[in-house]
Amino acid sequence: MSVDVDKPAEPPASAPPAQPEPIKAIPVRHYGRWVAALVVIGLLVLLVRAFASGKVNWGAIPEYMFNTDILKGLRNTLWITVLSMVIGIVLGVVLAVMRQSKNPVTKSVAWFYVWFFRGTPVYVQLFLWFNLGLVFQYIDIMPIYKDEWSDFMTPFLCALLGLGLNEAAYMAEICRAGLNAVDEGQTEAAHALGMSHGKTLRRIVVPQAMRVIVPPTGNEVINMLKTSSLVIAVQYYDLLQAAQNVGRDSGVVVEMLILAAAWYLIATTVLSIGQYYLERYYARGSSRQLPPTPFQRIKAKLAGPNRAGGTA
């Protein structure tokens, strides 16, 4: 005998729950930004108006842009910058290694060098080299060279020694910081493999330290380019000296100083671009994927609409 058991009636299908309305986020209004933007724009307008109302011969700037004397001064400025940085980098690496040495004599000499050249202005150092002829009549390196000091210490050599030796003190600290940034375990592992101290520095420590050394070194190159304008004190013919001479002869003094500033800006811009790509080169091992360069971003933006249009 079977008993029918009534199944409970299924509840009627209910309507799906209503979806909540999307939240509309209203950004907070920053009135201070608008005020700051208006103030900055106002100051720029006043600055442009001041130069526009001044008696500036703007046509003289492009006219003398590629003047022979100006280009000669620019070439000398770039040349003294490169040579001074070469001296600064090479001597700075040597001083940094001396600072890391366990020999108390070399360590003390390196410390004194950095202390002296960082503690005195480069302008004073230039004048010191220039006026040493008042103290020394001859330079006598017995088996190698002997000459009168005035013939030996030319304006070019004064500028080179004043800038290069001063830069070496700063590069020594930059290199020392880069060497200290490398983990000591790298050196211990290299010594365990039988590498000498010099080989460990060349093959293991220095390549890893370059990632720390390159960015401040790039800043030092740009700073050296601008600091080289001080060599006018020792009568070295650089970009500033050329601009002053041309301005004095042609009667457009301010215009030639503006032209010199423009050439300095162009040179520093080129050096900044080179520094950017050099930093990317040495940063390859520090991150898995490097951010795109400005040219890569522009290329991606230009290629985006075309790809989108092709797939549509």
UniProtKB/TrEMBL annotation:
Residue ranges occupied by any ABC transmembrane type-1 domain in the UniProt entry: 74-275
Keywords: Amino-acid transport, Cell membrane, Membrane, Transmembrane, Transmembrane helix, Transport
GO biological process, one term: amino acid transport
Membrane topology: Multi-pass membrane protein
MF term (GO), any: transmembrane transporter activity
Chain ranges passing through the membrane: 34-52, 78-98, 110-132, 257-278
The keyword Cell membrane appears for this protein: yes
One CC-aspect GO term: ATP-binding cassette (ABC) transporter complex
Subcellular locations according to the entry: Cell membrane
Coarse class of the protein's main subcellular location: membrane
Oligomeric and partner information: The HisPMQJ complex is composed of two ATP-binding proteins (HisP), two transmembrane proteins (HisM and HisQ) and a solute-binding protein (HisJ). The HisPMQ-ArgT complex is composed of two ATP-binding proteins (HisP), two transmembrane proteins (HisM and HisQ) and a solute-binding protein (ArgT).
Family: Belongs to the binding-protein-dependent transport system permease family.
Protein name: Histidine/lysine/arginine/ornithine transport system permease protein HisM
Native organism: Streptomyces noursei (Streptomyces albulus)
